[in-house]
Amino acid sequence: MKKTLSIVAVAVLSISILAGCAKSKTEAPKTETKPETKTETKTDAVTTASIVDTPEAFLKAVSKDGKWIIATTKDLTIDKEIVLDGEFKNGKKDKDGKDIIQRKIALYTQDDKKNVTARFTLTAPKLTVNSPEARIQSGTFKGDVYVSAKNFQLVDAKVDGNIYFTNEDAKSTFKMDTTSSVTGKQELKK
Question: How far apart are the C-alpha atoms of 134 and 177, rounded to whole Å?
């Protein structure tokens, strides 16, 4: 009997100690987990959006040091050339388990069911697209677009201007859905 009580007492004490040491899922990370946090931050940088509402923030977000998706929250006018640079992963994997490369200028807001709730206009004299797998989505770009990268897309978007392709690869891989439009020319211009 004493032996059984001792075993039960040790078990209860062990469970109490383990329960007291367990970290709550909602508890903030402790100082000793900083390396883990840095890794998560790097991963989050791949999958998060850069939400912008100023020309300066937009220009920083489209740089090679920006994010994969640049989302505006209002109409923006930028008085100089915009250059979309860098290769970015969107945080998803393809059917073979490889990271998906993508870059998006999102000129809209959406609700929790991904319905577009507002569309915005981005105005600039020129937008140069150097990022592969880039798209403009659900808004309007006013100005000329120069595409050097493969697989540029317009998705539910309008270009109020011309699209010039700087090479045959960029031109032959360009796609535009039925809700998109271009008011000007679409031509190869080296």
Answer: 14
Reported as a single tens digit per residue, the pLDDT across 90-108 is 999 999 999 999 999 999 9
Instruction: Indicate the burial class of 169 (C-beta count within 10 angstroms; 0-12, 13-18, 19 or more).
Output: middle
Question: In the predicted model, is pLDDT for residue 183 greater than 70?
Answer: yes
Q: Are strands 49-52 and 99-101 parallel, antiparallel or unpaired?
A: unpaired
User: Is residue 48 helix, strand or coil?
Assistant: coil
Three-state SS letters, 119-152: ECEEEEEEEEECCCCEEEECCEEEEEEEECCCCC
Total residues found in the chain within this entry: 190
pTM score of the predicted model = 0.74
Q: What is the largest CA-CA distance in the chain?
A: 92
Closest listed residue to residue 121, CA positions, set 82, 74, 58, 62: 74
pLDDT tens readout for residues 15-72: 444 344 444 433 434 434 334 433 333 333 444 679 999 999 999 999 999 999 999 9
What is the distance between the alpha carbons of residues 161 and 87, in angstroms, rounded to a whole number? 25
- Say which residue the tokens 């915009």 belong to: 82
Measure the CA–CA gap between 130 and 127, rounded to whole angstroms: 10
- Cβ-contact 149, 127 below 8 angstroms: no
**What residue spans define the domains of the chain?**
52-188
| CB-based contact 147:185 (threshold 8 Å) | no
